[in-house]
């Protein structure tokens, strides 16, 4: 039987303009499931492998607090990124019966994920990261076992850091170090999924592709020919938050300066993602 994966995403506030494209990319990975817990209502685009659970931000914080026995009460939903480290415990009931669970951001588009992680490769590891130095916050796959679900408890002072209003990136380097201490077998391979971060591209150059193509679940870009990618994390087009200063001044304006980010229909079989938005 094929290995099962469920991706859990709590998202509160307001849907981003590209939410229907995000769901469309999920739809084209029918061998994976998604659970999105939200107070944003139901988007237009629906998929049989994407379940929405409606819950207020306050109720979700209360759920996390009960599950972890801490007072998790952030003012900013962005703090939910830190909670990813503990998703295996917070959502233990939701992931029961699945071989693997994943955490994910929503400012991304998926390619053919299982093409990169078929069962034969997936079962070699307990954690799949797409970053070569730590657990990848935008998207990571974790084995649904007790040692992995509880790994976050080995982050020093995790309770204090989690209840602090400040974001500490617990789901990335701190979680990785905790897993290394527990001898959890991780795959850390740079997949070049986040554009414009301060690393060279796979060819050693610092010129990152600016136009990405999504075609019926396959993700490529303007400069790498037919090479496919598991996802595109486009956070640096929303804002230039993580772009190197020397690169930032030469880039087209970030999406925050666009009148409209979405300029095409998610129902089309092919669309592009670039500094000009979705076209």
Proportion of residues in β-strands: 15-25%
- How large, in whole angstroms, is the Cα Rg? 18 Å
Q: Helix tally?
A: 12
Mean of all residue-level pLDDT scores: 94
**Oligomerization:** single chain
Dominant shape? globular
Low-confidence stretches: none
Helix fraction, binned, reads 10-25%
First-last Cα distance: 39 Å
Q: What do you see in this structure?
A:
This protein is an alpha/beta fold and 279 residues long. Helices cover 24% and strands 20% of the residues. It is built from twelve helices and 13 strands. The chain has helices spanning 19-27, 57-68, 80-83, 87-90, 92-95, 113-116, 119-122, 146-149, 158-163, 173-181, 235-238, 245-248, and strands at 5-11, 33-38, 50-54, 100-104, 108-110, 127-129, 139-143, 186-188, 212-215, 218-221, 231-233, 270-274, 277-278. Strands 3-2-1-4-7-6-8 form a seven-stranded mixed β-sheet, covered by helices on one side. A four-stranded antiparallel β-sheet has the order 10-9-12-13, with no helix packed on it. Helix 1 (19-27) links the parallel strand 1 (5-11) and strand 2 (33-38). The mean pLDDT is 94.
């Amino acid at each position: 039987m094929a290995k099962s994966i469920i991706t859990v995403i709590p998202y509160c506030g307001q849907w981003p303009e590209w939410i229907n494209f995000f769901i469309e990319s999920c739809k084209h990975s029918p061998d994976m499931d998604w659970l999105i817990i939200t107070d944003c209502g139901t988007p237009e685009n629906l998929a049989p492998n994407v379940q929405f659970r409606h819950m207020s931000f306050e109720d979700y914080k209360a759920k996390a607090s009960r599950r972890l026995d801490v007072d998790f009460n952030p003012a900013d939903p962005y703090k939910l990124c830190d909670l990813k480290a503990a998703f295996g415990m917070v959502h233990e009931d939701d992931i029961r019966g699945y071989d693997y669970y994943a955490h994910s951001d929503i400012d991304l588009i998926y390619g053919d994920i299982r093409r990169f992680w078929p069962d034969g490769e997936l079962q070699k590891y307990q954690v799949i990261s797409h970053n070569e130095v730590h657990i990848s916050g935008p998207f990571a796959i974790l084995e649904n076992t007790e040692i992995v679900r509880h790994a976050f408890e080995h982050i020093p002072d995790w309770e204090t850091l989690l209840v602090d209003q400040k974001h500490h990136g617990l789901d990335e380097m701190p979680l990785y170090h905790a897993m290394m201490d527990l001898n959890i077998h991780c795959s850390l391979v740079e997949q070049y999924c986040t554009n414009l971060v301060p690393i060279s591209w796979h060819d050693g150059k610092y010129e990152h592709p600016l136009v990405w193509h999504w075609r019926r679940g396959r993700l490529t870009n303007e400069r790498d020919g037919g090479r496919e990618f598991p996802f595109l994390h486009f956070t640096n087009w929303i804002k230039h938050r993580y772009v190197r200063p020397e690169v930032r001044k030469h880039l087209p304006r970030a999406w925050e300066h666009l009148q409209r980010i979405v300029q095409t229909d998610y129902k089309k079989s092919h669309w592009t993602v670039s500094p000009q938005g979705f076209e």
